[in-house]
Structure formats: C-alpha cells, structure tokens
C-alpha cells in the first residue's frame, strides 16, 4: 500500500514530475489545459495540490484516522466507542502516533474525508467502523490504496483486512440461556438497520428462535440511544402479550429499558428479564445489575491499532477473529413468573 505521489500523477498525465510540480504550485511552465488535466488527476487519486512540498519529501504523518457516521452527542454516552478508542489510543501513543477523529453525516462525506486526509498527508492509515452490507466505502478505500483495518465483519470487506468477533455465537448463547430459564416470549431491541453486525445478529436471533420452537419472538429496530430504547420498551411492555425477556443491542438502551420497566411497576427480574450487549461499568451500577455480554473492548481496539500500524509499516496483514463476547449473568435475569391458572367461572 502506498500514497498517491507526484510520480503517479505524472505517469497518468503523460508529463514529467517537474511539469506536475509547476501545475500543482501554480507556476508557469505548463499550458492551462495541461494544468487542468494534472489538477483533475490529483483530485481523482486523492492527492491534494496544497501538500505538494510534503509529498515530495516523503514525510509521514504519524497519525491515523477514524471517521464516524454517528451523532456527536451519542459518543459521550455510549461506552463501547469510548472503550474502543481508549484501547486504540493506548497502542498508538506507545508508538508516538496520534488519532484523528471526525464526525461525518453520510458515506460520501466520509469518503471525501478519507481522500482529503490521504491527499494532504494528514494520516498514514484509517480504521473503518460501522460496516454496512455492500459498503461503498470499501471499494473507495481499495482504490486509494490507503492502509485500512475494518473493525467489523466477517466478510464484506473486499481486499481490506478486518478484525471481528462472532456476533452469532454470542446471540445464540444468550437466547439458549433465557430459554433454559423458561422464557418463551423474547424480544430483541436491535441497533441501526443496515449495519452488518445488526443484520448478523438479527439473522442469528431469527434462526435460533426457529430452532428452539419459539413463536412469540421478534426483533424491533432502534438507534442505540436511551431515548429510543425507552420508547420502544414502553410500547412493548404496554402490549397485551408483553415479552418476559428483552435483549438490547447495547447497554445504554438496556439501562433505559430497565428504568421504564420499574416506572411501569414491573419487577426485574421477576416480571421481566433484561440482557445488555457489550458489558460496561454502567451495567453494574444500576439495580439490579444487568446480565450482559462481556468482552475486553479496549483490547479489541488495541488489536485493531496493532494491525493498522503493521499495515502502515508495509507488513502483510490478514483478517483476524477476536474474542467472542460471553454471557455474564447478574441480577436482571431469572425464570419468568409462573402464569396463574384461570379463575373458575361462577356457577
């Protein structure tokens, strides 16, 4: 993997490197048509003309990039990304590397950010998060030849290396545990539709429920926020056939759901069992403490950073399966309350 260089522009334009330098720096020595052709090629391959001098020197940025397509306010309340970044930073700082973070609105803006970072020599590599099915960012990063590690998978990453965990196995373990407790009406409050890990969890949930003969189960989409998690929970618990167990795709929604259940006068876990994905200190601070899917998220981030630094150094890297989340039972799960027998009709 290598950065776009003046030599690349010269080769595509069919001119000398000197002519490219003249064009990029606005100096005389090339015709206007040649200048415009060179500038167009520079934009196409992600080379920013304002960085020509640094490009010629071959200097590295000693920084890596992370662009996130999420509202900035969610980062301050979602422990997963804070723990992931802490692991990334621990590994980067030990190598005197910095992390450049930017919030973006959509995929096209994110791709433009990668092109600008790479062309302006601001970063030496990037992490790609929140992988989508048929993600348009993957071929764009392949085209840039930008060192990349995808945090997510498996699959759907093209030639890009990834680090991923087995979402399906963790989901199956959770459902089997709840069924062993006696639950039959189980609902999953999922994350953002379209994210690859959301789709993997949804398919796994549907399949394990079918295999276990559960016919009162479903997945309800949400957006990871406490507000939406509370709204969805309130609607589910107000239904005639309310679930006896809820599985949330993150800890923030699970904690909001616990508050709603208590607000509605339900006892957790006697009336309702709750499981949170991605354990965090928050899960142990509420009452009752939440049963959760636990894994070492800072280590996950550190492993991703280690692989990206290896790619930047020119070492071959391959996709890597990290630790699978395991279930940690706590006070929020128990056998469901027995259904009272029907009252005999008066004669």
UniProtKB/TrEMBL annotation:
Comp. bias (Pro residues): 335-347
Keyword field: DNA-binding, Transcription, Transcription regulation
InterPro entries in the record: HTH_LacI, LacI/GalR-like_sensor, Lambda_DNA-bd_dom_sf, Peripla_BP_I
PROSITE patterns: HTH_LACI_1, HTH_LACI_2
Residue ranges occupied by any HTH lacI-type domain in the UniProt entry: 4-58
Annotated region described as Disordered, given as residue ranges: 326-347
GO molecular-function terms, A-Z: DNA-binding transcription factor activity; transcription cis-regulatory region binding
Protein name: LacI family transcriptional regulator
Source species: Micromonospora pisi
């Amino acid at each position: 993997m290598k950065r776009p260089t003046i030599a690349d522009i010269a080769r595509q334009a069919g001119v000398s490197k000197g002519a490219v330098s003249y064009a990029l720096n606005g100096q005389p020595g090339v015709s206007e048509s040649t200048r415009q052709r060179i500038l167009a090629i520079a934009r196409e391959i992600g080379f920013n003309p304002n960085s020509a001098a640094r490009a010629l020197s071959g200097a590295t940025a000693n920084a890596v990039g992370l662009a996130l397509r999420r509202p900035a306010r969610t980062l301050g309340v979602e422990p997963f990304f804070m723990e992931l970044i802490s692991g990334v930073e621990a590994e980067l700082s030990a190598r005197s590397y910095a992390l450049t973070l930017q919030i973006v609105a959509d995929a096209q803006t994110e791709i433009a950010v990668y092109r600008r970072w790479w062309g302006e020599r601001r970063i030496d590599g990037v992490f790609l998060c929140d992988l989508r099915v048929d993600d348009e960012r993957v071929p764009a990063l392949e085209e840039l030849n930008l060192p990349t590690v995808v945090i997510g998978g498996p699959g759907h990453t093209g030639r890009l290396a990834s680090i991923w965990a087995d979402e399906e196995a963790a989901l199956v373990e959770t459902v089997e545990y709840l069924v062993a407790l006696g639950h039959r009406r189980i609902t999953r409050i999922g994350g953002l539709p379209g994210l690859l890990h959301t789709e993997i969890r949804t398919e796994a949930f549907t399949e394990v429920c079918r295999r276990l003969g559960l016919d009162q189960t479903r997945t309800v989409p949400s957006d990871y926020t406490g507000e939406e998690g509370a709204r969805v929970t309130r609607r589910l618990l107000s239904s005639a056939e309310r679930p006896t167990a809820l599985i949330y795709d993150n800890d923030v929604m699970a904690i909001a759901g616990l508050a709603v259940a208590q607000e509605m006068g339900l006892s957790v876990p006697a009336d309702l069992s709750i499981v949170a994905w991605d354990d965090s200190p928050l899960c142990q601070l509420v009452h009752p403490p939440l049963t959760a899917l636990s894994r070492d998220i800072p280590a996950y981030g550190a492993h991703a950073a280690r692989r990206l630094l290896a790619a930047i150094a020119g070492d071959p890297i391959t996709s890597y399966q990290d630790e699978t989340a395991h279930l940690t039972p706590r006070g929020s799960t128990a056998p469901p309350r027995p259904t009272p027998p029907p009252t005999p009709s008066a004669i």
